[in-house]
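Discussion board: Methods & Data

I've been asked by a reviewer to show the raw model output for two of the constructs in my manuscript, not just the figures. I'm not sure how much to include, so I'm pasting the format here to get opinions. Each protein appears as its amino acid sequence followed by a line of discrete structure tokens. Is this the kind of thing reviewers expect to see in a supplement, or should I convert it first? Here is construct A:
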Amino acid sequence: MREIRPLRPTDLSGVGAIWHACVDEGTWEGTDHAEIERQLEQIEAEPWWTLVADIAGTVAGSITPRLNDVSVAAAHRRRGIGTALVRASLGVVRTLRDPYLLLYVPGGGDPPVDTPARRFAEACGLAYRATLTRMLLDDLSRTPEPELPTGVVLRTFGTDGEDTDAYVDLMNASFLSHPTPVSWTRQQVERAHARPGVDTDGIALLVLSDRPSALVGFARTRVEEDDAGRRFGEVALVGVLPEWRGRGLGRALMRWSIARFRSLGLEEAELLVVAANDRALGLYAAEGFRTVVAWPQWSLDA
């Protein structure tokens, strides 16, 4: 008997087995096993926004809206499991207050390619929305040091948590008009910062020099490692309040991120950006980043 239900801690190994198999199959282009392990840590910390298909106590599939993923084990495909997961996940999406379910659809770019994943997405009522791209900077030595306009200073995130509320408000305001809107809560941020190995010195905050509590921009960075043991810097997020854009703050935050990676002895940096975000894409390309993989994203209104 099939049951669609929230993730339990005992489901992690089953979900991981399906995800790792997808990497081996090549259906998760540009994703390696090390990244899968990081994603499993994410859903372990916030299990409530992942659903699984349980068949007689075995995880046959899963859907994680915040990771844009729906996956079904090879032995259980073409039995309606993926469709059932998509339908059930709309409740999770509404709880997250996201406007729509967003999923990665291999071969579903613009123009789309005829693939099983695209046909599945269309059958579920999803439509192409945007393309998420991974970009690589493979020479950090050529990036200049950051420069800030008068009246704006840069500092790192406070260690006592006093910046948390303002930081959450800043992130939400910065991404309100993003091509694929996202949002965060204080609880999510606190959980993320409590994870082992998280260094809040990797979060830069831009504040007004005459009002140190007034945040106008931020960058969140981390150090990752791939399957081959290559360590690289990831620019996880860069955001600037709409009214402060056009003053070079995004460029300064990007250059601060690269300077931090250099200080840590890293030689490469990566980031993700939605291709429809022309402002960000232009900035990153101008700073020397190049696209290495593209992930078509399809959506279904919640």
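Construct B, same format:
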Amino acid sequence: MHYFDVHQHYNLMEYRGRKVEIPSGLKQSEYFEKELVKTCKEHESMVAVNGLGVCDNEMIPMDMNDEVERFFKNNEEYIVGIAYVDLDWDTPKIIDSFYKRGFKGIKVIWTKKPYDSKEYYEFYKRCEYFQFPILFHTGIEGIPFGNWKDGAISFNMNPAWLEAVAFDFPKLNIIGAHLGYGYYPVACALAKSIKIGFTDAVSEKDGIEKRGNLFFDISGSDILLREVPEGGYIKRDIPVSQVIWGSDEPLTRYEEIVNIWKDHFSKINLSKEEQDKIFYKNACDIFNIKY
């Protein structure tokens, strides 16, 4: 089986109290890159690494787009570059720049207004033009990283705000992170209803997939790893075609997280083909990568 992790932050090694011992003589970023490529080779994986990285030794988020660019250009077989974009501070033309630099999509989080604010539409328009998927954080944030940015609250990242974006930009592939963490039924209902809407209203000759353009990844914390399986949402409430796998956890947990989902997929009787879609093929389709 192949894997495509759509949600990994650059330099993420120590997280949620989990300490990682960095070998003497290596910077944390060097060790991160070495271990991630090693993991990709061992598991036949690709990983979308986004530029919202973390500082060495401190869980402080920062723009690491330059580091991600160097990383994916040196490891194109395994690494897909996702640029971190601040919709409030950056200008829409930055999307053009990231396209020219070889990035394959953007990461968005901590907005001062809801995601469907018309002030953000020029960013989305450019992403749609360049066929850039957007990975939106969705759901409760609940940690103080965003406190420095007035108005960047969880309310603005409710998955419900992606409904208008999905319909106003029908050729834009949208990924909501964490299955809308805390808003799981909302995320599921949106993905399912938008898929149905596209199937009913959009023809293939329009160049738009009938499966819709709103997807959710199942990355996240131990809470999500417990709540989503317990809730039984996958396939029952959200179609397999709209679910993609992501980790958003340190590399030390990679195999553990894969096994958690494999066990759950087995319990809900997903076929090998359905598991392949979630773990790999859906993401390949979203990022226009052949499998």
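Answer (T.O., handling editor elsewhere):
This is acceptable in a supplement if you add a one-line summary per construct. For B, something like: The domain at 81-286 is CATH 3.20.20.140 (TIM Barrel).
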